[in-house]
Amino acid sequence: MSTTKTLTEARALLTKGGSVVTATEQALSAANDQKDLNAFLELFQETALEQAARVDAKLKAGDAGPLAGLVISIKDNICYKGHRVSAGSRILEGFTSLYSATVVERLLAADAVILGRTNCDEFAMGSSNENSAFGPVKNPIDHAMVPGGSSGGAAASVAAGVVHVALGSDTGGSIRQPASFTGTVGFKPTYGRVSRYGLIAFASSFDQIGPFAHSIEDTAAVYTAMAGQDPNDSTTSQKPVEPVTLTDPGKLHIGYYREGLERPGMDPEVVTHLQGQIDRLKADGHVVEPLDVPLLDHQVPTYYILATAEASSNLARFDGIRFGHRSKVAQGVDETYRLSRTEGFGPEVKRRVLLGTFVLSAGYYDAYYAQAQRVRRIIRDHTLAAFERFDLILSPTCPTTAFGLGVITDPVAMYLQDIFTVQANLAGVPAISLPTGTHSNGLPFGIQLTGAPFAEAKLLAASKSLFGL
Hints:
469 residues; alpha/beta; single chain
C-alpha cells in the first residue's frame, strides 16, 4: 500500500525529503500488488512518472500547484488525451481519447499525478460494479463483497490505499453509494458546478463528476481545482465558485427524513447509528427536526424513466460506423448497426436502452417521459423549499452495507439501492457520503448530507465540523 493516505500526509513526507516520483512508484507498486481487486483497467505508468518528475522540478523551483504530491485515479468514462477510455464497455475497447476532459486538464494544471483509469459499470449503469465488460471489482475490505457502483473501481482504488483521491461520476448515487460501501468520503457537487466536458455521457441532465477521498480537506482541494464555468460545457454555471475554507459553520438547522428511519428493508444497525447521530447533533446544540420526503416511492421510478431515456439518446452514437467496435460478420448498413451494438453492449446497457426507447416512443411519451418530468419538477421544488428552512438534510446513504458479489440478480431490487441517493440528482443539489459507521459484520457504511444548490462550501465545512473527517 501507499505510505500516505492524504495530501496533507504526502506534503509532510515531501518536506522531509521525499519525492513525487517515489510516491508515484509506490502507488504503482500498490496497484500491481492488489490486481485481484480488478480496480484498475490500466495504469498510466509512463505518463504518471513523467508528470511526477515535472512536479518534483516545480517543487524544487518553488512554483508547484496546490495539488502537488497528490496521486489520483480517474474513472474509465473520463477522457485523458492519448490514453485509452472505454466506459467499461466492449464497444469502446481499444479506443484512445483525442482530448482531455476539463477536469483532467485542471487537475494536471494543479500538479496532480494521474495514476490510471479505474473499472466501472458499463457506461456507468449499475449499483455494484458487476456490469463491467472487464469483470467485477472486489471490495478491498471484504473481497466477497461488491464495492458499489458504478464508480466501484474508483472507490476501491482509494479504499485500498493505492491513490489519495479518485474521480468518479454520479448519475443517481454512483459516487456516494460506493463511498458508503468502502468507508470513504464521496462527494457529488451541484449539477453545473463541475464541467462534464470529456465525460462519456450516460444521462446528461443527471451526470456529475466528483471525488472520493479519505478526508474532507482532500475532497475540498480537488473540488476547488475542478469547479467553475467551462466554455466547453454550456451547462456549467456562471455563478462564482465560493471559496472553501472549512471553518466551523456554527449551530445548524438540520432536517432528517423520518421515513428513511422507518422504511422496510433498512438495516437495523444503520437506523440505530443514524438515530444516534441525530441525538448527538441535538446534544451539541444543533436544531435537528424531521421533514417529509418528497414522493419517496416515486423517486427511483422517475429517475430510471428519465435517465434511461437520456441514455437511449446518448448511446445512439455508438453504432459501429464512426468509432468503437464494428461487427466483423455484419453485411450491409442495417446489419452493421444491429450486430455491432448487440456484440458491443452488455445486458444492463441493452436493458436500459430498450427501456429508454420505449418511454420516448410516440405511444408512451406522455404517459411516462412527460409525466416523469413533471414529477421531477415537484421533487426539485420540494427539495428547494426544504432549504428555505434547513441548512442541511441528513439521511442514510444506503439501506444496508455492501452485499455479496452475485447476490442481487433482480434488476429492480438493484435499482432500489439508489432509494436515498437519487433525490440529489433529480433536484441537482450537492450531496456527500461520510464514513461514520461500522456494522457488526465488519463492513463500513455512511450517512449522507445534502445541501442547497451551490452551497458546497457550507456542506464541506459542516461535514468536517460535525463529523471530524
